[in-house]
Amino acid sequence: MADPRAPGDPSPLSVEEEAAWRALARAVLVIPRVVDADLTQAYGISGTEYTILMYLSEAPETSLRMSQLANYVSISVSGLTRAVGRLEREGLVKRVRCSEDGRGQVAVITPAGMTCLRDAWPAHLRSVREHVMDHLQDIDLVAFAAAMRAVAWPEIGPPLRSGVRSRGDEP
């Protein structure tokens, strides 16, 4: 029997590839939900809010442009604006006008935000260990991390921006 695919059509996934794809697709949906639920229950902040605080705490001068932070957190600029607004009302983050061009906004973690992050860290760590790391004990984590970076380098997440790397560029 002749192959029904047109020239140039992709090959079907093998059984193993299909299983890996489906497991990954489910994991990228489930993991954030369970970590979010654990953080909310233990400390009252969402996984997104924790991630915002984490990236700000690691940034030079503990601040990032809102658009850059949205890329790191992988949410839309409007979604980030809402989340930062919640954190700002709690006194954990403040927004200031960008000193470089005066137009954009920069999110800055406050001392209270650093304390919140430090206090929530054990709950986050427990959740990540329980729901992810404990299931990856027999896997080469360096290779796994490299593969995940190749799949989802920060520049391809929302918001989509011009100047996104082409597939041949290093992540």
TrEMBL record:
One of its GO terms (biological process) is response to stress. InterPro entries: HTH_MarR-typ (IPR000835), MarR/SlyA-like (IPR039422), WH-like_DNA-bd_sf (IPR036388), WH_DNA-bd_sf (IPR036390). Residues 17-153 form the HTH marR-type domain. Transmembrane segments: none annotated. This is Transcriptional regulator, MarR family. GO terms for molecular function: DNA-binding transcription factor activity. It comes from the Bacteria.
